[in-house]
Design goal:
The chain is α/β, with parallel strands linked by helices. Helices cover about 35% and strands about 20% of the residues. The chain is built from three helices and four strands; from the N terminus they run E-H-E-E-H-E-H. It has a four-stranded parallel sheet with strand order 3-2-1-4, sandwiched between helices.
Length: about 90
């Protein structure tokens, strides 16, 4: 199943992503170094990673699969994801 991954540390469009994901019944992983508030939904999960440099980026790149959607403003991370054929 297609999954959405959000690099949440600087994402300004999380609310819009949540609405689209609910409309299309897509699972969402919100990934950050510390917990942030997310909507109560069985489709939306918070993934807290260690505080290491680029830990959230690394988790998303390792976990996302071909065709999954990754939302980030980090160009280097986006390049890594595209090499894995994520969207």
């Amino acid at each position: 199943m297609l999954t959405i991954y959000i690099d949440a540390d600087g994402c300004a469009v999380k609310d819009a992503i949540y609405k689209v994901a609910e409309r299309h019944k897509l699972p969402v992983f919100v990934v950050a170094n510390k917990p942030i508030q997310i909507p109560l939904s069985p489709r939306i999960q918070m993934q807290v990673v260690s505080g290491g440099f680029d830990a959230a980026d690394d988790w998303i790149v390792e976990t996302a699969g071909v065709g999954d959607i990754v939302i980030t403003t980090d160009i280097l991370m986006a390049d890594r994801c595209l090499k894995k054929q994520t969207r």
